[in-house]
Fold this protein.
Amino acid sequence: MRKKRHEKLQITNKYHGTKLLENIEVSLPAYTEYLCQLVSNSLVTLPEDKNSMVPIIDFGAGLGTICCLLRDRTQRQIDCVEIDVNLASILKARNFRVFSDISKADPTNFIFSINVIEHIKDDTGTIKEIYGHLKDGGLFVVYVPAFMQLFTNLDSSVGHYRRYSKKELVKKIEDSGFEVTDVRYVDCLGGISTFLLRLLGSRFQMWSLSPRRLAFFDKRVFPLSVLMDKLFFYRFFGKNLFIVAKK
């Protein structure tokens, strides 16, 4: 499975985080499958028929790692919003319709965004634009890095403006008109690892991103992190925040 995914990629590194996206796709299959599961679990809660012909939207689709998994899982048509021309070409090669701006896509009842809005300076304006593009009753699913206390040189190197507190992100989403229906932290052990890497410095932060170390985390650490999240930590701490909001 990993080899098949890797063979699909034809990457030129215009976006400086593209190599990291490739490493994540190849080395973190359990992690990306879990994110797909979070999104698909929200998708089936829509009041409309889950097999509706209306495309759903991946806002900031990157390489298409999550929307490829989600398309296979749900058989739904997925449109992608992606501003980077090289990433857009990869998405088109993977048979997605790609738009450089969400206003060019058809209105929909489901938009998800995985590790994107932290890259956007005017994140509030973007959330309001997403709100305007959703149909009434539609859902916005968002996944972002959590806790500015965990901000490292890795965040800066891939263009993050911020990591989010739960209070901050919920307020921005609710101030844009949404009703938040679910909020939880994800990957408590990843959060602890990130805190330790911050203390150790940038050399160790880059060291942690090798495909072999990512694969070790995915196979040995992340399954335990998911279990700990479910038992307790999802309320209080994790490397990321997951939020579902309704229009």
